[in-house]
């Protein structure tokens, strides 16, 4: 999900069959749209499913939120691709629910539950804070040239790595059976580990195959196989499917809107980093679509893309869903198919909206056992951390950079593992440093501003 901005020239030779403004025949359009959908479907629904399971939400609420994550992704993708005024990149750039926000949202939600908040109050506070924090990207889109001096590639790499590393604990919890398994004493049982192992093994196997379509679809296929194995082992009950209503009517602000101060700062930091990821992803899409990656057209695209990211995340919060961001998976599909036509994106957006309107889809997603989910997400979370390492590796790792990394990782991972170190701190400090990602991210930003850069000979 992370891309790195590069000033490069547009390639002279073309590998594209259909360019940005072309309209492929319907069969090719549907084939390409299905490939995009397969590449992103699991990544769209999984963050919502993980949050709902971690917070112990009832099945009905989970169904609603998963459905709305699909619908919000469809609407957000249309806005990003179509462009409305200054909003949108105008490229085949698909939007989906972002994994980046899982840690802060789950941490804040569990804290609210421990404080006695019921589900509507908790979700209202989460969605209201997301709505407020999404303005971060709106603001950044207007002053991109200045923010990139503060959020440098080194800072971005550190935060992305911390996001991945702190999420791995969530993935391992799912592999063991989730919080419900911890409560009933079955956490880490052999049947759960076997299921996760099947999924993980299939993902590794298919990613080593030469067939590019198998690699792209590896997570979907592995999770389907894992769910089938769980059903054969008697670990899945399909009784709830009979109670599914035919269509889901969107109910904006179903829980109302509240606010949680401890969630705001971590979300602002993640939104800032996500805006840089959006720049990287849009740059990559421009490259694969043989569009300019420098100059006024390119600058307009990245400003519009980051602005769309912020507005779409606010829209997602209103629709009872979680923040959206650009997906890099779809750049691989453009390369595989040779189809960069944004006309394809309208079909992908329509498919996502339709899937979101039918609760049966969300109900089927809820049947996926947590160990199956964990086997897939542990790979995704590890990939996020690896993406952060890749960004850092492109920086000059002098003594200053090593010191910033050392202190940021120490603060971030230390507080993630031992949050009680802050128990005697003022409430304001505890709120700001409530997550390891926020602690490490703020450390990186402050040190990057305070420590002078080493002079080159």
UniProtKB/TrEMBL annotation:
Residue ranges crossing the lipid bilayer per the database entry: 37-56, 62-79, 91-112, 124-144, 151-175, 187-206, 213-233, 253-273, 343-365, 371-389, 401-419, 431-451
Superkingdom as given in the UniProt entry: Bacteria
Topology relative to the membrane: Multi-pass membrane protein
Chief place of localization: membrane
One CC-aspect GO term: plasma membrane
UniProtKB keywords: Cell membrane, Membrane, Transmembrane, Transmembrane helix, Transport
Molecular function in Gene Ontology: xanthine transmembrane transporter activity
Keyword flag Ribonucleoprotein: no
InterPro entries listed in its UniProt record: NCS2, UacT-like, Xan_ur_permease
Subcellular locations according to the entry: Cell membrane
A Pfam family of this chain: Xan_ur_permease
Entry annotated with the keyword Transmembrane helix: yes
PROSITE patterns to which the protein is assigned, alphabetical: XANTH_URACIL_PERMASE
NCBIfam families per UniProt: ncs2 (TIGR00801), NCS2_1 (NF037981), pbuX (TIGR03173)
Assigned protein family: Belongs to the nucleobase:cation symporter-2 (NCS2) (TC 2.A.40) family.
Protein name: Xanthine permease XanP
């Amino acid at each position: 999900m992370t891309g790195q901005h590069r000033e490069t020239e547009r390639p002279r030779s073309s590998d594209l069959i259909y360019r940005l403004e072309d309209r492929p025949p319907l069969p090719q359009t549907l084939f390409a749209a299905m490939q995009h959908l397969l590449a992103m479907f699991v990544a769209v629904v999984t963050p919502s499913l993980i949050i709902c399971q971690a917070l112990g939400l009832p099945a009905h609420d989970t169904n609603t939120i998963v459905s709305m994550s699909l619908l919000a992704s469809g609407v957000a993708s249309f806005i990003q691709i179509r462009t409305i005024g200054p909003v949108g990149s105008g490229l085949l750039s698909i939007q989906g629910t972002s994994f980046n926000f899982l840690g802060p949202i789950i941490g804040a939600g569990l804290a609210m539950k421990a404080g006695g908040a019921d589900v509507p109050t908790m979700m209202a506070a989460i969605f209201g804070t997301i709505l407020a924090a999404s303005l971060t990207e709106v603001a950044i889109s207007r002053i991109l040239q200045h923010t990139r001096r503060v959020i440098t590639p080194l800072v971005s790499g550190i935060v992305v790595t911390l996001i991945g590393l702190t999420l791995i604990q969530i993935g391992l919890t799912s592999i063991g059976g989730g919080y419900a398994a911890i409560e009933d004493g079955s956490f880490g049982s052999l049947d759960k580990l076997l299921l996760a192992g099947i999924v993980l093994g299939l993902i590794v196997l298919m990613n080593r195959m030469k067939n590019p379509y198998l690699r792209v679809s590896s997570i979907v296929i592995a999770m389907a196989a894992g769910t089938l194995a769980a059903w054969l082992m008697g670990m899945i009950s399909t009784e709830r499917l009979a109670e599914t209503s035919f269509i889901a009517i969107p109910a904006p602000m179903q829980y109302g809107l509240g606010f949680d101060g401890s969630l705001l700062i971590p979300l602002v930091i993640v939104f800032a980093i996500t805006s840089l990821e959006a720049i990287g992803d849009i740059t990559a899409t421009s490259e694969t679509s043989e569009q300019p990656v420098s100059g006024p057209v390119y600058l307009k695209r990245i400003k519009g893309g980051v602005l769309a990211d912020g507005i779409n995340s606010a829209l997602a919060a209103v629709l009872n869903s979680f923040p959206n961001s650009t997906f890099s998976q779809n750049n691989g599909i453009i390369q595989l198919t040779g189809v960069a036509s944004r006309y394809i994106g309208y079909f992908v957006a329509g498919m996502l909206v339709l899937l979101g309107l039918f609760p049966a889809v969300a109900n089927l997603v809820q049947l996926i056992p947590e160990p199956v989910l964990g086997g897939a997400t542990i790979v995704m979370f590890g990939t996020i951390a690896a993406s952060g390492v890749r960004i850092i590796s492109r920086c000059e790792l002098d003594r200053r950079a090593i010191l910033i990394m050392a202190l940021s990782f120490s603060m971030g991972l230390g507080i993630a593992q031992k949050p009680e170190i802050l128990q005697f701190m003022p409430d304001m400090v505890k709120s700001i440093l409530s997550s390891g990602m926020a602690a490490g991210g703020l450390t990186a930003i402050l040190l990057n501003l305070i420590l002078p850069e080493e002079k080159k000979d």
